[in-house]
């Protein structure tokens, strides 16, 4: 599947001996191509942003889970360049149900309902609570933004295309996108990963690194994180 994705963007995939991790690649690219603002959508406990604090002038964390937000505020309270938004991101400004699961890392909760595939392949996926949360478009959050160079990280459990679409005109300011791509849908979506890849390709993004692949019991790829960079 990774080979198909590379081919979709006009590249071939070859193996090399040297390997590294996602954050090392991101830091290398940011040294070469500095960015001003990090948008961490689906921040969870903020681990992604915590490793990159010194690389951005400002960081915006978006996390709708009320059980996580207090920990986020405590972790980043001494960093004046970090802003925390206790909301979800989508392609409309409105309120939606949020389905909370009982997984230990609280990474599977979503505004999308689960399907049976997630229950067959992952543990502790039961929905234990349903609440209403606020959803905002990224362009409504960024309407007074002065930064012209943006890095977007999106990990929203089935809502990543809507997150991309919510950028509106600000997609022109985004130069890097690290996004969780679902090869096999774990949530009730009316689109597949090719639509996400189409959006990225149509906006001149190309994949530069793959990470964190999760596979089902038969070895098929379920999802992975992909780092994209805009080609000028």
What's this entry about, in short?
This protein has helices at 2-8, 22-32, 47-50, 69-75, 116-121, 138-141, 160-165, 193-202, and strands at residues 37-41, 58-62, 82-85, 88-89, 94-101, 127-136, 150-154, 174-182, 205-215, 221-230. It has 232 residues and is of the alpha/beta class. The longest helix has 11 residues, at 22-32.
Describe the structure.
The protein has 232 residues and is of the alpha/beta class. It has one domain (2-10, 34-93, 136-230): 3-Layer(aba) Sandwich (Rossmann fold). Helix content is 24%, strand content 30%. It is built from eight helices and ten strands. It has helices at residues 2-8, 22-32, 47-50, 69-75, 116-121, 138-141, 160-165, 193-202; strands at 37-41, 58-62, 82-85, 88-89, 94-101, 127-136, 150-154, 174-182, 205-215, 221-230. The strands form two sheets. It has a seven-stranded mixed sheet. It has a three-stranded mixed sheet with strand order 4-6-5. β9 and β10 form a beta hairpin. The two termini are 27 Å apart.
């Amino acid at each position: 599947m990774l080979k198909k994705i590379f081919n979709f963007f006009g590249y071939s995939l070859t193996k090399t001996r040297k390997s590294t991790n996602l954050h090392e690649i991101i830091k290398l690219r940011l040294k070469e191509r500095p960015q001003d603002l990090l948008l961490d959508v689906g921040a969870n406990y903020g681990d992604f942003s915590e490793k990159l604090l010194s690389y951005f002038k400002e960081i915006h964390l978006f996390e709708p889970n009320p059980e996580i937000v207090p920990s986020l505020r405590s972790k980043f309270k001494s960093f004046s360049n970090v802003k925390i938004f206790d909301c979800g991101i989508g392609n409309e400004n409105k309120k939606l149900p949020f389905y909370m699961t009982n997984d230990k890392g609280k990474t599977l909760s979503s505004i999308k309902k689960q399907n049976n595939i997630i229950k067959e392949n992952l543990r502790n996926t039961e929905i234990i609570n349903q609440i209403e949360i606020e959803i905002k478009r990224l362009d409504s959050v960024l309407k007074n933004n002065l930064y012209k160079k943006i890095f977007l990280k999106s990990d929203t459990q089935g809502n990543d295309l809507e997150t991309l679409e919510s950028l509106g005109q600000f997609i022109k300011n985004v130069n890097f996108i690290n996004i969780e791509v679902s090869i096999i849908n774990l949530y009730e979506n009316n689109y597949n990963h090719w639509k996400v890849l189409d959006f990225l390709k149509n906006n001149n993004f190309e994949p530069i690194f793959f990470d964190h692949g999760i596979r089902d019991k038969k070895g098929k790829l379920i999802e992975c994180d992909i780092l994209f960079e805009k080609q000028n």
